[in-house]
Amino acid sequence: MLRKQWGLTASAGAAFLAIVTASPEVAINIASAARDVSGIGLGNLLGSNIISIPLMVTIAYFASRKQFKNNKEHQEHRDKNILALNKRSVAVLSLPYLGIIALVAILTLPKPWRGLQPIDGWIMLGAYIAFLAHAIVKGKQKGKNVEWNKRQVWLSIAGAIAIATGALFIVKATENIVSVLGISEIVGGLFITGIMTTAPEIFKTWSVVKGGEVTAGTTSVIADNAVTMTLAFFPLALVTTPIEDFQLYWVNLAFVGLMPLLYSLFIHQSKEQHGFTHWQIFAFDAAYIVYLMVMVFFVLKLF
């Protein structure tokens, strides 16, 4: 409703909607920092950003198989097995997000300033403000009249309270599981917390795409990840989070960057129609499987 009221395009609206849908990651990292288990937050930061693009693109593809009324163009996309997207989403969302990942790498990988420090947090907060401003400026149109009611306002407030409460319980649950299994906090964050926090994004992607807004529903995952890498980065940096396993960190950060890189390359691969074919969506899923294999056999060396 705010997107329509403020006259934001689908891509710009996705950047705005991400403030809500990525809030679980932010809340979890605040809770992790407050409970002195910032390793869980760091794992959540990386893990959620790796799995989210393959997962949301796949969900969006299946949700878009629905036939929309009076939309011949979408019917053509269905017949060609294409998840069609507006090419603006690359300039507005995915390229700036790649810039954010590059900035994180510059701030945290070099040995002299390795780790997440308070100054890094303030820099990433500024990066998010720039990302949001760029998305809104690039996608501003004339707004429409929107009527609000008290029920919608109260539902929003209740949702915010539920997210904050859920974040605390997720962090506590991860702490307990990590303790029982004898694994590190960051591994718990990668494969427990990071996966759990995708639930709101799954619901949003499915419902928005099924509602006919394919570009907004599919591209919003990029905006979600940008919020996670900036706003969710901030609380961990304020409490100074060290990188104890450098190999695990850089491998995961590399796959965080690989996913939007594939997104940008695939969306422009077809000259006739911007978007993803079913084979490209399979490639996203295959990339995540490769990530799991690298983690299991080469980084964690479980076998």
Automatic annotation (TrEMBL):
GO cellular component: membrane
InterPro entries: NaCa_Exmemb, NCX_ion-bd_dom_sf
Single Gene Ontology BP annotation: transmembrane transport
Entry coiled-coil feature ranges: none
Assigned keywords, A-Z: Membrane, Transmembrane, Transmembrane helix
Subcellular location: Membrane
Membrane topology, from the record: Multi-pass membrane protein
Gene3D superfamilies hit by this protein: NCX, central ion-binding region (1.20.1420.30)
Transmembrane keyword on record: yes
Record's protein name: Putative membrane protein
Native species: Christiangramia flava JLT2011
